[in-house]
Amino acid sequence: MTARLSLYQKAENELYKMDSSVKTKFYDFCHQFRLDPNHPSLDLRPLKGDGRISRAKIDRSYRALLARAGVGADGIQQWLIVAVRHRKDVYEELTVAINRITGEIEFVDLGVVGQSVLQRAGLQLTPAPDEHTAPAEPTPAPNVARQPAVPAEPLLAGCTPEDLRRLGIAEALIDLALTVTTDEELDQLIAGAPRLTAEVLTGLGSGMSADEVEREITQPASTELEPGFENDMAAALTRTAVTTVDDDIRNVLAEGDFRAWKVYLHPTQRKIVERNYSGPARVSGGPGTGKTIVALHRVARLAAALPPGHGKPILLTTYTKNLTADLRSRLTSLMDPTLLGRIDIKHIDQLAQSVLNENTSPGSQRSLITDDRALDVLREVLFEHDEQRWDAEFLFDEWEQIILGQSLATRQDYFKARRAGMGRALNRPERAAIWKLLDQFTLRLNGLGRETWAQAAERAARYEMERARKIQIRAERKEDIGGGDLVHLDDNSSAMRYVRHRYQHIVVDEAQDLSPAHWKMLRAMVAPGAGDLFIASDTHQRIYDRQVTLSTVGINIRGRSAKLTLSYRTTQEILDQAAKVVRGATYDDLDDGTDTLEGYHSLLRGPVPEYVACADWTDEITQLAEALEQWRADITQPAEDGTVRDPSGTMAVCVADGEMAGRVAADLEMKHGITTATLTKDGPQGGGEVHIGTMHRFKGLEYQKLAVVGASDGILPRATLIEKYATTDPNRYERELKKSRNQLFVATTRARDALRISWHGKPSPFLPS
Ligand SMILES: Nc1ncnc2c1ncn2[C@@H]1O[C@H](COP(=O)(O)OP(=O)(O)OP(=O)(O)O)[C@@H](O)[C@H]1O
């Protein structure tokens, strides 16, 4: 090998999308280049504009653009492939530079900047000569619309070149950015700009001030740089996100997008992953901003730092069962299998069950009962007591939210309990009566050998808290006697002697839906201290009616919270519409503060979501089937090399409830011949192409194209279920509305590039007007 090759992130992303025939030629090119960069077939030549950048030949049509990046410690020359372009798109003014904030190598392609902007800035691009082209002629000034007599006000009129420089915009783009006058021009500039420039411009374009951008975007990305850094390409290469080109590059490119998140964390994401936290920490952010990715990398980092040993000192948990399988498979692709064995991956109810199994003698376990069934039992109890003051729903809510929610063990505790957000006030005699009724209810469940999930979680929390209390007493006594042996401790059974906290680190995803009992259990499972709990959450996506203030369950995240704002999943067009669904509602931050979607944005662009009003159900399904057929045709369009993508699992239909999911599946299958798979707790079942499920099931998932069906008033929100609260319990009514609104928000943000929402009758009031 005479040259070492690396691949710039943007170039890698571009290559993912290219035809496999170009990719194959690219592998051959890399092989030849590493053997001998000066081989005549490569025709390596510097561009005239920037001596640091050269072009080399991949095949008749494609050129690699490369930057020389010094010589490695072993004396081998280093090159960075910054782009792969059709020869017609190679021109002399291409440049590379070292960013003054991040110290990374940046490639600037003015070719993707809009013609109107180039012309206003007086720039003209010169095609680079190529053996297949006629001698280079400057590109004639592009024929663009005449400038208006009174020039339009630049979009970033409030910024000076110095501001943009301070924020880290690539030098070659500063003047251009200041001449941009329309959103379209700005979007075009952003699409082609290096990473930090794109983020800064997006921030400024969305109305953030230069100071806000500096605080939120520039500072998190900044790194300390030595004087003279701008000329040291070899050092800059070490700071740049690249993939080393070796014989594995073929696999890298074949894995496509899937690989991107494994290799390149955004600097903001990386900082959150790598920080040493002195206690519980939390990452929040809108849908698709990479919270799960950050949580996975955090697990990998914690595992890598473990001393050698056995057992599973790290817990990775999430709310839903079907997401656990997804977390496991993503983690498998991220880490060494031996380290993977040190991680316990369980969803939260499974965790509670394992605690209960451990603490229950065989034969005395209680089986689980759904909330609906439990409500029936409560109704029976009320009927037998001829109780009419409160209905079963109200009492069940009181039980789940207040009694179980706050782990109230005695009547006295209940008398004193705060009932914030519960609406209707209850005086002492009323509380006494409610306590008695609920006592009867739990006794009845007990007698049946049944318990609800919430009860199981609360019981598991108690066992764990008791265990943590014993560990603490033991530690305190040990300290009192200067570390000696505790032979005389009351409970010195061998079981007690070796009792430890279950985990050293706990990482929680989808944390917004956990109940106070879940949190108490988790808190008790890990010793308070550095790196104990890492929490990923977005309260806009809370779809179960649970509210918690972490500080009240012994989890203090103050000063250890971070926020992600860049969506990697959804296009800006989808994101704009989704944000309108939750606009106006207030969201907590799992603590005493509030959370907002401020700054939430995407660099991806796509079609605007489609809103389709239909005449009736049959019409809605017929139009849906047509849209799915069209999507399928788009997805399966053969690539240039003839390969055809498998559309299975790329499209989905999301509905409000299970019954409707069944109807949509049956109609699509029987009337339109479209095969479907139903999303269940255990993932998609049925093997068909289009996934169908309720909004709850879509949590954490993503699809290339997604349709929401039945978005009608009366269904979203479900009037028959919640209307009664409008007068009897306005607080509950508001909570139900918000839950329903959040479900639609979750659903709409699962779409990567196409979203279609349909209804018949009156549209849902949550749809953006
Ligand atoms: N640094 C990155 N580079 C490339 N892709 C990324 C990066 N970070 C996240 N992604 C991709 O963005 C998508 C969303 O990521 P992820 O599921 O972690 O987001 P999230 O914030 O947990 O979303 P949600 O809250 O909606 O569940 C995934 O496809 C992921 O692979």
TrEMBL record:
<dbReference type="InterPro" id="IPR014016">
    <property type="entry name" value="UvrD-like_ATP-bd"/>
</dbReference>
<keyword id="KW-0413">Isomerase</keyword>
<protein>
    <recommendedName>
        <fullName>DNA 3'-5' helicase</fullName>
        <ecNumber>5.6.2.4</ecNumber>
    </recommendedName>
</protein>
<dbReference type="GO" id="GO:0016787">
    <property type="term" value="F:hydrolase activity"/>
</dbReference>
<dbReference type="Pfam" id="PF00580">
    <property type="entry name" value="UvrD-helicase"/>
</dbReference>
<dbReference type="GO" id="GO:0000725">
    <property type="term" value="P:recombinational repair"/>
</dbReference>
<dbReference type="GO" id="GO:0043138">
    <property type="term" value="F:3'-5' DNA helicase activity"/>
</dbReference>
<dbReference type="InterPro" id="IPR014017">
    <property type="entry name" value="DNA_helicase_UvrD-like_C"/>
</dbReference>
<keyword id="KW-0547">Nucleotide-binding</keyword>
<dbReference type="GO" id="GO:0005829">
    <property type="term" value="C:cytosol"/>
</dbReference>
<dbReference type="Pfam" id="PF13361">
    <property type="entry name" value="UvrD_C"/>
</dbReference>
<feature type="domain" description="UvrD-like helicase ATP-binding">
    <location>
        <begin position="264"/>
        <end position="582"/>
    </location>
</feature>
<dbReference type="GO" id="GO:0003677">
    <property type="term" value="F:DNA binding"/>
</dbReference>
<feature type="region of interest" description="Disordered">
    <location>
        <begin position="127"/>
        <end position="146"/>
    </location>
</feature>
<keyword id="KW-0378">Hydrolase</keyword>
<feature type="binding site">
    <location>
        <begin position="285"/>
        <end position="292"/>
    </location>
    <ligand>
        <name>ATP</name>
    </ligand>
</feature>
<keyword id="KW-0067">ATP-binding</keyword>
<dbReference type="InterPro" id="IPR000212">
    <property type="entry name" value="DNA_helicase_UvrD/REP"/>
</dbReference>
<dbReference type="GO" id="GO:0005524">
    <property type="term" value="F:ATP binding"/>
</dbReference>
<dbReference type="GO" id="GO:0033202">
    <property type="term" value="C:DNA helicase complex"/>
</dbReference>
<keyword id="KW-0347">Helicase</keyword>
<dbReference type="InterPro" id="IPR035093">
    <property type="entry name" value="RelE/ParE_toxin_dom_sf"/>
</dbReference>
<dbReference type="InterPro" id="IPR027417">
    <property type="entry name" value="P-loop_NTPase"/>
</dbReference>
